[in-house]
Amino acid sequence: MNAPRRLQRPRRWALWHLRGIRRRFHEQAFGEELARVNLDFTPPQRRAYLAWMRAHSRRNGVPSAPGYSVAWMLQLQEELLREAGLEHGGEPAGLRSQAVVPDADPGPETRDSGPKTDI
After folding, report:
1. Can you state the angle between helices 32-40 and 12-30, rounded to 10 degrees?
2. CB atoms within 10 A of CB 42
């Protein structure tokens, strides 16, 4: 069988299917809001919206990209947990010391002794 001489345009249902796949990927990867921005806005609308988003985040104390670090995010998380009266694990501060540690050896009654054979 010979190959077609020129590339054919995909059918409407195939394009519709691909658009759905692309939208689901964007929603999963970037969230519903950014999927809408990436796929539904025109380039000037997208640039204006992202500029507004950056300005809004700076007004609320989020550092700009060059100064951003994971340490800043961890410091913020610690401050928020401290304000809520919680430690790192999400437990109240006094309960962490009361954790029960299981024994290393479960004992002979729970140990698997292998297959049981009566010969």
Report:
1. 140
2. 8
- Give the pair of three-digit tokens for residue 30: 């970037």
Closest listed residue to residue 93, CA positions, set 103, 81, 102: 81
Is pTM beyond 0.70 here? no
How far apart, in whole angstroms, are the C-alpha atoms of residue 99 and residue 94?
10
Contact 46, 38 (CB under 8 A): yes
Spell out the domain ranges in the chain.
Answer: 11-61, 63-92
Question: 35: closest CA among 55, 12, 51, 19?
Answer: 19
Helix (H) or strand (E) holding 45: helix 43-59
Looking at this protein, which amino acid is placed at residue 1? M
Query: Tokens at residue 88, please?
Result: 């790192």
Predicted local confidence at residue 23, as pLDDT? 92
Identify whether the C-beta of residue 17 lies closer than 8 Å to the C-beta of residue 26: no
